[in-house]
Specification:
The chain is 30% helix and 25% strand. It is of the alpha+beta class. It has 3 domains: 276 residues, DD-peptidase/beta-lactamase superfamily (Beta-lactamase), CATH 3.40.710.10; 79 residues, no CATH class; 97 residues, Lipocalin (Beta Barrel).
């Protein structure tokens, strides 16, 4: 059971559209109770919410606290890391440069970034800027992120290692979410504009929109004022964790922002690139990012009708209740966020949360959308929480059973000392396994993170990572001719779905 009691507070409305009669009753009369109840149910310290409709801020509020156990309230200027909602900024920059003829989205990526390569030489020559922005390189979703997430690798190191990964699918045959590709796209934008990605996003988007508190790089949030703390679940306990180190793949997910600043971004997007009478982004560039490039599915949703699910450039595209929805989510260490647009209704929704262990950031947007679209109230938060609690119960029970197995001290195929030594994965690098008391400890070359490996008997070990977001995973070792050949390292799907085989060095 979670024992922490969260202080649930909210600030007054910052701005309300003149004609309150056009605001759905759910938003006008019920939202405060809905969100405050959800914070308690989901164990979320703080949330910021913004709704933009017809060019005006309908609602902009902070709920709860910045840090677990604290009393400092979230407000409209509180910074949250927005994760992959960074991607829409990167794609918009590239689409703008395309409109200005400074590059073409059909340019080969190698023209602007020679160090970006794929394992197949032909594919390396054929990859275009557009391919990078719509996740159609043939990679599995999150493939390679184990190597890049919170590591000491430089961006050039990432590209060198990425080039040695074997794609799961053939080139352009299937969509697979690829963070390294967006990193490459951001660097291409900087190169084409004779600057860096971070300076480009500041000068072309943040400054014209007056996003004065928005930060381009993850390293900047540490020294910032009025910022939310990152939180995650460790078993059944919510804990504070360090901010993610993401600047080696910055264009894919390093931005921090507030709902006040994000309201300006959303207002501009909903007005085809205009903000306060000025054309900040060409309308054609905005449209380019919303043009489908990749097919994800048929668009079926929990309630009502949906008929397609696609990906543009930095945006997911779907039909819901007869409307085109343009949206994206973001998840990094301790934060999950969502940005949703219904362009034809000029409706925008921004939701920022300071724990990565919730689905409320998505549930809330559906209930707000339904209210504006005239659909019945569904209480997505309750529905999603039912699914989440059921899955969480299964996950906790699975880990409990494995820990019970550890406590049985079942015989190991080989003495623990035989499992120690240096292991290597190409392209990651090395992992050192040492004997520490009655268990093994894994140390990774490019991570501060370690793994405590306790025997499950035979050749299997239960690995508890020092960073909770990496999970508690069963790690099998391969043994041949009485010797340890390899270990198959797995981490939580939040980071990477793929297994990584580390070969034991002689």
């Amino acid at each position: 059971m979670k024992k922490t009691i969260l202080l649930l507070l909210f600030i007054p409305l910052l701005a309300v559209a003149q004609n309150t009669a056009t605001i759905p009753s759910f938003v006008k009369d019920s939202l405060d109770n809905y969100i405050n109840n959800a914070l308690a149910v989901w164990h979320i310290p703080g949330v910021s919410v913004c709704i933009v409709k017809d060019g005006k801020v309908v609602l902009m509020k902070g709920y709860g606290v910045k840090e677990l156990g604290g009393t400092d309230k979230v407000d409209e200027n509180t910074l949250f890391m927005i994760g992959s909602n960074t991607k829409a900024f990167t794609a918009t920059l590239l689409a703008t440069l395309d409109t200005e003829k400074k590059l073409s989205l059909e340019d080969k990526a190698g023209k602007w970034l020679p160090q970006f390569k794929m394992k197949d030489e032909w594919v390396s020559k054929e990859v275009t800027v557009r391919d990078l922005l719509c996740h159609r390189l043939g990679m599995n979703t999150f493939q390679g992120d184990f190597m890049f997430f919170d590591t000491d690798l430089s961006t050039d190191d990432i590209f060198k290692k990425f080039a040695r990964l074997t794609p799961v699918y053939s080139f352009r045959s299937k969509w697979g979410y690829t963070n390294a590709a967006f990193c490459a796209a951001g660097l291409i934008a900087g190169n084409a504009a004779n600057t860096t990605w971070q300076d480009l996003v500041r000068t072309r988007i943040f400054q014209p929109l007056g996003m004065t508190r928005t930060l381009a790089l993850a390293k900047e949030i540490g020294a910032a004022t009025n910022k939310a703390t990152a939180h995650t679940m460790n078993g059944d306990q919510l804990i504070k964790i360090p901010y993610g180190q993401l600047d080696n793949i910055a264009p894919a997910g390093s931005i921090s922002s507030s709902v006040n600043d994000m309201s300006k971004w959303v207002t501009m997007l909903l007005d085809n690139g205009k903000f306060e009478g000025k054309q900040v982004i060409p309308a054609s560039a905005i449209q380019q990012t919303r043009t489908p490039n990749s097919i994800l599915g048929d668009g079926r949703v929990l309630f009502n009708n949906g008929h397609f699910y696609l990906y543009g450039l930095g945006w997911f595209l779907q039909e819901y209740g007869g409307k085109k929805i343009v949206s994206h989510t973001g998840g990094v260490n301790g934060f999950v966020t969502s940005v949703t647009l219904i362009p034809e209704d000029k409706l925008g929704i921004v939701i920022l949360t300071n724990t990565d262990a919730n689905e409320f950031y998505e549930a809330l947007k559906w209930d707000i959308m339904d209210a504006y679209l005239g659909f019945p109230y569904r209480n997505y938060s309750k529905v999603y929480n039912g699914y989440a609690e059921a899955q969480n119960k299964i996950d906790l029970e699975t880990v409990r059973k494995k820990r019970d197995t550890v406590a049985m001290h079942l015989p190991v195929t080989l003495p623990l000392q035989k499992f120690t030594g240096l292991y290597e994965n190409d392209p990651y690098g090395t992992m050192q396994i040492e004997l520490e008391g009655d268990h093994l400890k894994a140390k990774f070359q490019h991570h501060v993170m370690t793994g405590k490996m306790e025997s499950l008997g035979g050749n299997r070990f239960l690995c508890t990572y020092s960073n909770p977001i990496w999970g508690v995973m069963e790690i099998p070792f391969t043994i041949e001719n009485g010797k340890v050949k390899s270990a198959t390292i797995k981490v939580a799907g939040f980071v990477d779905y793929m297994p990584y085989e580390f070969i034991k060095k002689p």
